[in-house]
Specification:
The complex is a heterodimer of chains A (187) and B (178). With 187 residues, chain A is mainly alpha-helical. Chain A has helices at 3-21, 30-43, 45-50, 63-70, 90-102, 107-123, 128-138, 147-152, 155-167, 173-180; strands at 79-82, 85-88. Chain B has one domain: Rossmann fold (3-Layer(aba) Sandwich). Classes of the chains: A mainly alpha (187), B alpha/beta (178).
Chain lengths: 187, 178
Amino acid sequence: MKQKQLEKLKIVENYIILLLGIVDRPIPSILHLEKEMFILSRTNPVVANFIPFMKHYKGPYSDVLNDLVKEPLFYTNAYRIVNGRIQLTSKGKKIFEEIVKANEKNEKFQQLLATLKMIRELYDKLSDEELLLLIYITYPEFKKRSDISDRLLSAQKREEIARKLLKKGLITEKRYREIVEHDTDNT
Amino acid sequence: MIRIIPDTSFFICFLDDIRASAHLLKIFGSDRFILVVGRVVHSEVKKSENYHQIEHILISAESYDYTQFGEILRPFMSVEEISKGEHEVIATAYVLNFLGYDLIFILDDDDARNLVMKNLREIADKMTGTVGFVKLCCCEHEVFNKEEAKSILIMIKNSKFRVKKEIVEKTIEDIEVC
């Protein structure tokens, strides 16, 4: 592998560590990590350059990200998957602190941390189904039709999930109505 | 200096509903506030036929367009809310609060306000509505004297701006005693 490619992968691992470290709790699942990173890439064009996402039956997917979460190349033992949840190890927490310290005067980096925190605060609260439904509906261009998407996008399931989201206060009333009345032919 | 992050309805209130852009110019001409306006809110305000009256303050406003913070909230809000830029206001407020800036963000939509109250409590105390902001401009920041503030609120009460009349009346009472 070329040096430049390796450097890119290291940066992706940095992003993973930052996403994991910004809140002191594990990320609920690999699905969450993937979609949270996707949202980050939508906010920040630099991140989008390092982590390209493609169409997938579970919405936007990055094989690079998926591989590095399961088998990191640079920061071995910095994070681990326990019962499906991803968390930093004590080594990972140290690396997180080092990255933060090295960039403490960089305003763009601080904005990145704020973005990561906001993403974690909102998306960690979603169940897998809630997360997938919101992603399918918001970014239909990243979805490959599948049994899962068909089931989640059925009128009954949409209503059921949207009601739960509204009850949790995670979506607005208008968004609730939009999801319930969503035209699945256009997704 | 306090960063002020208003939603579209705040500008439209002054520009079109009460046609009092001079008050907006006074607010952002004061040395107490720095106006922060994102891309979506700016483009919505541009649609007002009176936009030219405040164009210069919007063009010179601070903006954080490089990063699309609002995208974080897109899945949680309706297309209509997104098109008005409410997601942009909330996300920008969250980020600037994280950076340690003193700020006030102005949101008038109840739905959007509830989303903040339930999920982003760390910025909830920085949130106000247009009417509440007029009160702050009078009672805390001395941008308006009491008579000016009350006359603005009466104009708002009598306009098509969407706010409960009781809220405006209560705010006028608060101003009397602040």
